[in-house]
């Protein structure tokens, strides 16, 4: 109740609550119409009103959920509005699929007969009111974002071609019909047409109710598929297709920063309808200033990615190459030194002298160890414990 009170205190929340109440009344009235007429086209209109009601509920959810991190959720319930919109569009899609099955069964069963009723037109107006409330009652909310950011459905594209032809004759209608008509407005228009045609021709054409409901259900499916796809891609943590070129340009600019060797392991995704997150590893030279590179890379990508995690990785190939060069220079210098010195051969250990003087026999034993000579000899075979041999 506290969250509902906080939503009611917000101007957008108050409008969403009022629109939800009106949509709920329209839904109840449509359920009554279906119970009286047993009409499939009114059943489709009732499901559309249910869809509109839950779309407005998703707006209330977006105003009441907390974005604070919790023990189990790093970002709180920031993705709850996305899940609400996705669930709502999937509900409408499934209802359209089931209605297609029912319509086919009614078309094959010729024993069903219905009669015109005033509730057809009343139900059409109720469904249209509910759809228009979902589309225009609250601005800049999750469902409105999905309607504007998702790709056009095939139904909208065909209607856009007709709109261009109409606006060529009546240019004043371009404000309403171009560049593309809102998907909910288009569904409201088609629902009114289907209910009106059914009411007019039901006495003469018994299968008109099932046929109109079948066409309307296909239109609902075609309309909901792009909306479900857009919300589903956000739940799968992907980036929107319309910002891929901008991301590539920002990454190319960040790669030209002084000290940056490459950007690797870059991953960007959309957490909710408004926030882009990303992680990237930046390989830099060993002599590069990490703080300066961090600020520069963040500045290049901040225009697209609102929450960015940058990992600075020092380049190790430079240090190994310089170490190998220094080791090679040391070995060269040692070899040159060993070749330049003329090293006499000494027997390190004992020296034995043998001589005969005037028939005398004398022996002299001299234990000697010339450390300087030994040191010179061992130069060519010295091993540095800090040099790694490859």
Question: How does this model look, in words?
Answer:
This protein has helices at residues 2-9, 11-37, 40-64, 80-108, 119-136, 142-149, 154-169, 174-177, 183-201, 208-235, 244-255, 290-301, 317-340, 371-377; strands spanning 260-270, 276-284, 307-314, 349-357, 360-368. The chain is mainly alpha-helical and 390 residues long. The chain folds into two domains: 2-236; 242-317, Cation efflux protein, cytoplasmic domain (Alpha-Beta Plaits, 2-Layer Sandwich). Strands 1-2-3 form a three-stranded mixed sheet, covered by helices on one side. It has a two-stranded antiparallel sheet with strand order 4-5. Helix 2 (11-37) runs antiparallel to helix 5 (119-136) and helix 3 runs parallel beside helix 5. Mean pLDDT is 77; it is low at 319-390.
Key features?
3-stranded mixed sheet, Alpha-Beta Plaits, mainly alpha, 390 residues, two-stranded antiparallel sheet, golgi apparatus, membrane, 5 strands, 61% helix, disordered C terminus
SSE arrangement:
Blueprint lengths: L1 H8 L1 H27 L2 H25 L15 H29 L10 H18 L5 H8 L4 H16 L4 H4 L5 H19 L6 H28 L8 H12 L4 E11 L5 E9 L5 H12 L5 E8 L2 H24 L8 E9 L2 E9 L2 H7 L13
Major sheet description: 3 strands, mixed
Tell me the overall shape: elongated
Q: Helical segment tally? A: 14
Number of domains: 2
| Share of β-strand residues | 5-15%
Structural class by SSE content: mainly alpha
Low-confidence stretches: 319-390
| Average pLDDT score | 77
Spatial extent as radius of gyration? 41 Å
Name the strands of the widest sheet in spatial order.
1-2-3
Order of helices and strands: HHHHHHHHHHHEEHEHEEH
Helix content: 55-70%
Distance between the amino and carboxyl termini: 72 Å
């Amino acid at each position: 109740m506290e969250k509902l009170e906080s939503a009611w205190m917000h101007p957008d929340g108050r409008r969403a609550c009022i629109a939800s109440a009106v949509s709920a009344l329209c839904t109840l009235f449509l359920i009554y119409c279906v119970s009286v007429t047993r009409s499939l086209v009114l059943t489709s209109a009732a499901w559309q009103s249910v869809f509109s009601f839950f779309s407005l509920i998703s707006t209330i959810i977006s105003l009441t959920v907390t974005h604070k991190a919790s023990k189990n959720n790093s970002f709180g319930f920031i993705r709850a509005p996305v899940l609400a919109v996705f669930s709502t569009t999937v509900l409408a899609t499934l209802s359209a699929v089931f209605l297609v099955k029912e319509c086919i069964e009614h078309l094959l069963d010729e024993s069903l007969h219905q009669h015109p009723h005033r509730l057809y037109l009343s139900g059409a107006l109720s469904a249209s009111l509910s759809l228009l409330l979902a589309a225009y009652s609250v601005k800049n909310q999750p469902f409105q974002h999905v309607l504007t950011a998702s790709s056009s459905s095939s139904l909208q594209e065909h209607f856009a071609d007709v709109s261009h032809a109409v606006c060529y004759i009546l240019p004043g209608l371009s404000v309403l019909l171009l560049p593309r008509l809102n998907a909910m407005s288009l569904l409201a228009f088609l629902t009114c047409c289907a209910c009106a045609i059914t009411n007019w021709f039901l006495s003469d054409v018994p299968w008109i109710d099932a046929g109109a409901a079948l066409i309307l259900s296909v239109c609902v499916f075609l309309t909901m598929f792009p909306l479900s796809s857009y919300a589903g891609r956000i739940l799968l943590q992907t980036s929107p297709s319309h910002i891929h070129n901008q991301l590539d340009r920002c990454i190319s600019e960040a790669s030209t920063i002084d000290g940056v060797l490459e950007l690797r392991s870059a991953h960007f995704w959309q957490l909710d309808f408004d926030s882009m997150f990303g992680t990237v590893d930046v390989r830099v030279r060993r002599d590069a200033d990490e703080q300066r590179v961090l600020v520069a890379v963040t500045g290049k990508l901040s225009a697209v990615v609102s929450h960015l995690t940058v990992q600075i990785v020092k380049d190790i190939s430079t240090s190994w190459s310089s170490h190998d060069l220094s080791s090679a220079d040391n070995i060269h210098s040692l070899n040159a030194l060993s070749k330049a010195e003329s090293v006499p051969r000494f027997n390190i250990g004992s020296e034995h002298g043998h001589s005969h003087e005037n028939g005398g026999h004398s022996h002299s034993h001299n234990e000697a160890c010339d450390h300087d000579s030994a040191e010179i000899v061992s130069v060519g075979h010295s091993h540095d414990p800090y040099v790694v041999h490859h």
